[in-house]
From TrEMBL:
Residues 134-349 form the ABC transmembrane type-1 domain. This is Microcin C transport system permease protein. Keywords: Cell inner membrane, Cell membrane, Membrane, Transmembrane, Transmembrane helix, Transport. It is a multi-pass membrane protein. GO terms for cellular component: plasma membrane. It is found in: Cell inner membrane; Cell membrane. Pfam families: BPD_transp_1 (PF00528). It comes from Desulfobotulus alkaliphilus. CDD domains: TM_PBP2. NCBIfam families: PRK15133.1. The chain crosses the membrane at residues 136-157, 169-195, 225-248, 283-310, 330-356.
Length: 368
């Protein structure tokens, strides 16, 4: 097993390198980069640009673009557009004055030392931005995934054991309806019903904690934290439990009808021993295999709309805004970190395989 883990850890390096390389050259070659977006933003201000970017107005105009705060003397030449010298300065600020291959190797060197640079549009380093947003995304992803697994696995087992009964029928109907409705509709409905939309004001709508969070007691902080998370986690759980429940049900049904189960019953084993002593460890393998992707999905992509609807400033929203604004340092850093997380979680998933079924040994192969 130790040799297998070492191989998997070593494979992380070329995998990260390949994913980062492909995305770097695809994104860099795509039109509408940060320089083009900044030129369009400045040129689009038309006639009153001179007044807005001169004197004290410059600070307001570039309040979200720290790299340009000192550029109060921009020369805008009407129909001719921006001064070519200023465009060259823009390219230098964003690092596009160097060839693509130089930017690529600089990126690899910086990432080797975990230097992700500074955001193009926010006066902060990428690591500090990620650190600020991480608690929100971890909270949403971790609690949603844990609750989904705690609900879906017992429910899926029960549906398999009572296959064809009334319980199996009506739960399948409920699951199918829940699966057909988009997650954001559940979220909007919860806001309307319970967050002051049209009916009740039982839950807060913004943020992960209340303004006076630091003054609360330990118990008060815990209650306040989960009070803010109640609605977004409920929306994510309702929208995400259908697939795992049916996967667990079908996996157990497939194992229950195999020959070794009939043999165990013929030898006098009771149903509980057959189910949890023989069927469980085989049926759970496919469920465990999907844990890394499920967690990463909840952690990043799955929480994007939830973060927007409930005004939660997390990594999903940060990555979306960076993509729309072509904030390359933030884009590449979030891609790198989430890829690394996925690879490490897949290794943890393999270790869980051996815990569920000790017969599995990843360190040995036939013919080796």
């Amino acid at each position: 097993m130790s040799a297998y883990l070492l191989r998997r850890l070593l494979l992380i390096v070329p995998t990260l390198l390949g994913i980062l390389t492909v995305n770097f050259f695809v994104i860099q070659a795509a039109p509408g980069g940060p320089v083009e977006q900044m030129i369009a933003r400045i040129s689009g201000t038309s006639g009153d640009l001179t007044e807005r970017i001169s004197g004290s107005g410059a600070d307001d105009f570039f309040e979200n673009d720290n790299a340009l705060e000192t550029e109060a003397g921009i020369r805008y030449r009407g129909a001719e557009g921006l001064d070519p010298e200023f465009i060259e300065e823009l390219e230098k600020m964003f690092g596009f004055d160097r060839p693509m291959h130089e930017r690529y190797f600089k990126l690899l060197k910086d990432y080797f030392f975990w230097d992700f640079g500074e955001s193009f549009y926010k006066n902060e380093t990428v690591l500090s931005l990620i650190a600020q947003k991480m608690p929100v995304s971890i909270s949403l992803g971790l609690w949603s995934t844990l609750i989904i697994y705690m609900v879906c696995i017992p429910l899926g087992i029960r549906k398999a054991v009572h296959h064809g009964t009334r319980f199996d029928g009506w739960t399948t109907t409920v699951i199918s309806v829940a699966h057909a409705i988009p997650v954001f509709l559940f979220a909007i409905a919860l806001v309307i019903l319970f967050a002051g939309g049209s009916y009740f004001q039982w839950f807060p709508l913004r943020g992960l904690t209340s303004p006076g969070f630091d003054q609360l007691s330990a118990v008060g902080k815990i209650l306040d934290y989960f009070h803010h998370l109640a609605l977004p986690i409920t929306a994510m759980v309702i929208g995400g439990f259908a697939s795992l429940t049916m996967l667990t049900r079908n996996s157990f049904l497939d194992e229950i009808h195999k020959q070794y189960v009939e043999t165990a019953r013929a030898k006098g084993a009771d149903e509980k021993r057959v189910l949890f002593g023989h069927v469980f460890r085989n049926a759970m393998l496919i469920v465990i295999a999907g844990f890394p992707s499920a967690f990463v999905s909840m952690f990043f992509t799955g929480s994007l709309l939830i973060e927007v609807i409930f005004s939660l400033d997390g990594l999903g929203l940060l990555g979306f805004e960076a993509t729309m604004g072509r904030d390359y340092p933030v884009m590449f850093a979030t891609l790198y970190i989430f890829t690394l997380m996925g690879l490490l979680l897949s290794i943890i998933s393999d270790l869980t395989y051996t815990f569920v079924d000790p017969r599995i040994h990843f360190g040995t192969r036939e013919g080796s």
